[in-house]
Write a structure and sequence with these properties.
Layout: E1 2-6, E2 9-15, E3 21-26, H1 29-41, E4 60-65, E5 68-76, E6 82-88, H2 91-107, H3 117-128, H4 131-137, H5 144-151
Antiparallel strand pairs: 1-2, 2-3, 4-5, 5-6
Length: about 150
């Protein structure tokens, strides 16, 4: 809060409960001091976030676009990093999508890693290479899967 001389009078500036800056001009310093004192009489409410409580602090947030408000969610992956998904038309859609992702991560169905697909694929092939002779005996030499196995090593 501040008081200053402004255009021949006094101006009182303060921030409201949403964090926005406000100001009011008075013709006399006495009126400005009285108003300033009245602002201090009240217990300042807790400041709310910019999205005014939407999302309820559970990783779902609104954002503005030219075509109207959209929603996004933030979730922590299994490797500890955060990721976000956006462009949901409603808060409920974003909440439901986030809930499904969190459940998949908790059940272990989704695992994030720094491993490249090439590293994963070579490891996968090594574990399944013993299947190639059995496929040959079964007469599956024309199968693309057999060709992939037989070319490796």
């Amino acid at each position: 809060m501040s008081r200053s001389a402004a255009k021949g009078g006094r101006e009182v500036r303060w921030r409201d409960s949403t964090g926005r800056q406000r100001s009011r001009r008075f013709t006399t310093e006495e009126a400005a001091r009285e108003f300033d004192g009245a602002l201090h009489e009240h217990e300042p409410p807790e400041r709310r976030s910019r999205d005014r409580g939407r999302g309820r602090g559970h990783g779902v947030y609104a954002y503005r676009t030219a075509s109207g408000p959209l929603w996004r969610y933030v979730v922590r992956r299994s490797d500890g990093t955060q990721t976000t998904k956006r462009d949901f038309l409603s808060e409920k859609a974003a909440r439901d999508a986030r809930r499904r992702v969190v459940e998949q991560i908790e059940r272990g169905e989704v695992r994030h890693t720094k491993e490249t697909f090439e590293q994963y694929w070579s490891r996968w092939i090594e574990r399944r290479r013993p299947c190639a002779p059995a496929m040959q005996r079964a007469g599956l030499q024309k199968s693309p899967v057999y060709r992939a196995f037989s070319r490796c090593g």
